[in-house]
Amino acid sequence: MEGRGTHSQTLADLLPKAAQAYGSAPAVRYKEDGRWVDRSYLEVLDIVRPLALGLTELGVAKGDRVSILANTRPEWTYWDFAALSIGATVVPIYQTNSPEECGYVLENSDAKVVVVENEEQLAKVREVRERLPVLEHVVLMVGEADDAHSATAISEKGAAVEPARWAELYEAITPADICTFIYTSGTTGPPKGCIISHGNYRAMLDMVNGVNVIEPGDLAYLYLPLAHSFALLIQLGSFDQGTTIAYWEGDPQKILPNLAELKPTYFPSVPRIFEKIYTAASSGMEKAGGLKKAIFDWSLRVGTKMREAERSGRKPSFLLQRQYDFADKQVLSKVRNLFGGQLRLAVSGAAPINPEILRFFNAAGVLVVEGWGMTETSTAATVATPDDFKIGTIGKPFPGCEVKIAEDGEILVRGANVFQGYHKNPEATAETIVDGWLHTGDIGEIDSEGFIKITGRKKDIIITAGGKNITPANLEAEIKQHPLVSQCVVVGDRRPYLVALVTLDPEEASAYAKEHGLPDDPVALASNPDVKASIEAHVEEVNKKFARVEQVKKISILPHDLTQESGELTPTLKVKRAVVAQKHEDAIEGLYAA
């Protein structure tokens, strides 16, 4: 580990140490007026220092809460480091949150200042401002408004302060001081504010450095919300290592074009994006059929053999090499080029991903591994690396992090990265940390080689009327393999058998409608008998892999996909089961009544 990272003591002195170590190396890359622009570590320092001192001029002192309500963009990073460096506690809010949800976090955290991205986010704060007596200042990242400070005004205030004052402030912060409250996105109940110290995140960074997750010279493409701990760790880890973060353009449609333009080497993501790319690549071949499909499938088999040879250190045979060259030219390189062609490693986190998708990308030379953790572990607890991974597992514990399985199968974690507790919620803290062990709520197992596998969520376990315990995640992942299926929620708690609510992928459904001469109407397609028959046939095939009690007996296709706006998905696109079950109660009852 010696020589890797800035060796900062806290997150407060991380940027100053990074600027000292990496100087003119590019820290951030973003699109401005249609072209990609870089800012070096020293330039970022010069942007952050006056913002930090400007916050102190607003009266922000050590321990005060500064909230950030914005999309993932370089300014998010600047304000984060500005607040952290003066000892403020950063409270991130998802840019997709409703005014009501923003109000809850601002009120619960006792935020003194909120930094909002633009007019759209400012409008949310205006709507709830009256019930926030502790909130003193609103700051706009971009633009100007009568009821908010502009970033320029704050920077000018800070520029008038003696720069040496900044060093006094960041050097006074200790590992025991609190750096952030991150509110869980709440798949059940209201969000809880996880209290995370500078020492927690510094320990997490040391663990990341210990297994070379981020390599020197990496370019990481970041579209994940910085309000989520996964994206935050990438930000902090990149600055600790002196690598470059490229920020997305804020438009989901631009993710694939951005990957092609930027050619990143490191891509942290959630399963939904990998699922979409996989569906686009494989469903095209299913439709093409014939020789094209045969070459595609053969190429994947050859790619798998080649990867096995590479990882075992064997030189591929003459025949395998010739086959691979052909397969690579025809199919595999095209899959790699979807990610820009330079990807060293992609990491999938925040939710389980179907191993079939990982095998597909692996064969094409795009290594996607899973990591696992939660906000309560300052982002992560286990990791898979290019040198040590097993598809279908979440890797092994980080060095310095202990993982064990409780008698009921729950995964327990202990380590310096485990959070301090929940803000204003001692009962939940006492339930979650018992005798120094964090109770994660995930169910899993550890194999003979030390790889950990998640088999379900404790809260998601379905207990059928017959008393059988079923974890629906694997079943749902298999059903989602159908090209037309976007989301699948299996239901069956206290019921005689399992049923599933399914939604259609809007893009795939639109293509299907065009192909079959049907109107491009999602509601009509959801009730189309041919669409239903196709998905039911797929579910029948999936059922063969599971015991009778775990099989889905009936499906209902919902007229619309699940969305964050409807409250059915979290900002990292995890399904809120309770919300879905409640909203679609009639559809569920209909399946059991029929």
Describe this structure in words.
The chain is an alpha/beta fold and 594 residues long. The chain folds into 3 domains: 14-200 and 226-246, 3-Layer(aba) Sandwich (Rossmann fold), CATH 3.40.50; 271-341 and 343-457, Rossmann fold, CATH 3.40.50.12780; 462-593, 2-Layer Sandwich (GMP Synthetase, Chain A, domain 3), CATH 3.30.300. It contains 21 helices and 27 strands. It is globular. The model has no long low-confidence stretch (mean pLDDT 93).
Short description:
The chain is of the alpha/beta class and 594 residues long.
The main sheet orders its strands as 4-3-5-6-7
Q: Count of DSSP helices?
A: 21
**Shape from CA axes?**
globular
- Low-confidence segments, given as residue ranges, are none
Distance between the termini: 62 Å
CATH third-level topology of the largest domain = Rossmann fold
> Gyration radius, to the nearest Å?
25 Å
CATH architecture of the largest domain: 3-Layer(aba) Sandwich
Look at the helices and sheets and give the structural class.
alpha/beta
Helix content: 40-55%
